[in-house]
Amino acid sequence: MKRLLLLLSVLLAGCAGEQGIVNKDGYQLDTRHPAQVALPRIKVLVIHYTADDFDVSLATLTDKHVSAHYLIPQDPPMHRGKPRIWQLVPEDKLAWHAGISFWRGATRINDTSIGIELENRGWQKTGGIKHFTPFAPGQISALIPLAKDIIARYDIAPQNVVAHADVAPQRKDDPGPLFPWQQLAQQGIGAWPDAARVAFYLNGRAPYEPVETASLLDLLSRYGYEVTPDMTDAQQKRVIMAFQMHFRPARWDGVADAETQAIADALLEKYGQG
After folding, report:
1. Which among 174, 144, 136 is positioned nearest to 49, based on CA atoms?
2. What predicted TM-score, i.e. pTM, was given to this entire model?
3. What values do phi and psi take at 170, rounded to 5?
4. Of 149, 169, 186, which residue constitutes the final position of a domain?
């Protein structure tokens, strides 16, 4: 009797077009019992710069070797009052933009991320010093609604809106210390420490007072950066530089100091461990 009732309910659902029953070619799906353990594939938003002009960047990102989901020109053309952004890869497809990468315990960040490329010349070295190219206000104005839209659709946590340098500090600098992370955080895009908590953790110390490198790297590892026991001094410096370019862009020398440590403490307090 129970089997007969179940069969009748299925038949009636198919005939009546019951909500949650989806007819396919050759079969029927019952979608009325969604599993609780089902998470979005997209968890990370990665910001890049192209290190070249728009035409070369577009050619590179549509070639066979690298790709990104979006490309924003330095001066986006306006159409009906809106800036135009190039979508190069559908969001449900994997793009090869992060490369060999690590963030908050996960590798293969390409598998779980969306990549946005910003046309920008990157850095030039003069006198042994890297000089980065500023981002145009119109480009950032175009980025903000796109990033907000992506974050909302995939419920991306603030600490998972990252720089390419955050997920690949040994290879990459982008988007560099001139990228306006604090401005974006004020728009609800990405993480930023509370100034009062940074001051609390600084606890009266001079900002550039040296601290133990291992202690700082432990904080950065807990926040999400890849730190391993066998790293050389140069590799450790690259991790600290990546963090500073993101959260303390006024000075990104890769030296472990009190202000960098205080910022890391404040971020961990606010967003938790990776």
Report:
1. 174
2. 0.89
3. -80, -15
4. 186
Torsion angle defined by CA atoms of residues 134, 61, 109 and 215, in that order, rounded to the nearest 10 degrees:
-30
88 lies in some domain? yes
Q: Per residue in 72-90, pLDDT tens?
A: 999 999 999 999 999 999 9
Q: In angstroms, rounded to a whole number, what is the distance separating the alpha carbons of residues 169 and 189?
A: 21
Is 249 inside a domain boundary?
yes
Sheet with 113-118: strands ordered across = 86-87, 70-72, 113-118, 44-49, 161-163
Residues noted as catalytic: 117
262 vs 268: CA distance, rounded Å: 10
Amino acid making up residue 36: Q
pLDDT tens-digit readout, 190-215: 999 999 999 999 999 999 999 999 99
The conformation of residue 94, written as its DSSP 8-state character, comes to: -
Instruction: Tell me how far apart the alpha carbons of residues 124 and 114 are, in angstroms, rounded to a whole number.
Output: 27
